[in-house]
């Protein structure tokens, strides 16, 4: 055991910790956004179960990471799904707090967390696996598992912090949705199936796609939210 740690590539360990800190932020945001409408008594459950499901999927993703990212149109499909999740997180709930059971809302929040994290982790797991490649072969599995273990408290603590900030500063909801759009736009324009298209040629195409994704999610989400809010009074009147 002493020999194992003595020969461990500590530079790779440090790289993985930095990657978790840098890349765990967006996951914490989406977890907080998905749990913000849960009763306070269920928020921690949503965070913990959503994080557990996301971490399990990351383990599976890391095994197939390189191959997955080379499948044409997979990143595009994931990006489009993430765009829709970003828009949905901007929309108000459908006045259904009395109709939807708390348990159902908890399950829905957990599903949103897992699906969004699955898409967002496509690139993240490559970074962790890439950092582990610099270590000896017998250390790689340990480093990958270590990276995932380190990410758990970072994501749980980060999402709890964001949840508290959401209660005080609702604008963070819009910023969080924009972040999902940014990630989605980058995924779409770097998909192996489309990145060779002439229209996507250029050094700054990744940033342009990210900006368009962020702006698009916010605009579509705010327009849909405005329409839903205008429609509600009419629906209540007709019901009466």
From TrEMBL:
It comes from the Bacteria. Its main location: membrane. Keywords: Membrane, Transmembrane, Transmembrane helix. The chain crosses the membrane at residues 12-35, 47-67, 138-157, 169-190, 205-224. It holds the Pfam family TerC. This is Tellurium resistance protein TerC. One of its GO terms (cellular component) is membrane. It is found in: Membrane. Belongs to the TerC family. It is a multi-pass membrane protein. The lineage of its organism: Bacteria, Pseudomonadati, Pseudomonadota, Betaproteobacteria, Burkholderiales.
């Amino acid at each position: 055991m002493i020999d194992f740690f003595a020969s461990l590539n500590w530079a790779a360990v440090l790289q993985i910790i930095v990657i978790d800190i840098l890349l765990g932020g967006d996951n914490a945001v989406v977890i907080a956004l998905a749990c913000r409408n849960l009763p306070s008594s269920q928020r921690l459950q949503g965070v913990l179960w959503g994080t557990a499901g996301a971490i399990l999927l990351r383990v599976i993703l890391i095994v197939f990471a390189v191959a997955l990212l080379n499948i044409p149109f997979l990143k595009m499909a994931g990006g489009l799904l993430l765009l829709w999740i970003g828009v949905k997180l901007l929309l108000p709930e459908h006045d259904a707090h009395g109709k939807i059971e708390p348990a159902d809302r908890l399950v829905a929040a957990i599903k949103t967390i897992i699906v969004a994290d699955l898409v967002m982790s496509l690139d993240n797991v490559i970074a962790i696996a890439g950092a582990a490649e610099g270590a000896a072969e017998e250390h790689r599995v340990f480093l990958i598992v270590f990276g995932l273990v380190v990410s758990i408290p970072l994501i749980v603590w980060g999402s709890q912090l964001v949840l508290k900030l959401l209660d005080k500063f609702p604008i963070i909801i819009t910023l969080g949705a924009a972040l999902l759009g940014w990630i989605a736009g980058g995924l779409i324009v770097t998909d192996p199936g489309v990145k060779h298209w002439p229209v996507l040629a250029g050094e700054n195409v990744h940033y342009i796609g990210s900006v368009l994704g962020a702006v698009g999610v916010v605009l579509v989400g705010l327009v849909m939210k405005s329409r839903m809010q205008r429609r509600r009074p009419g629906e209540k009147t007709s019901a009466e």
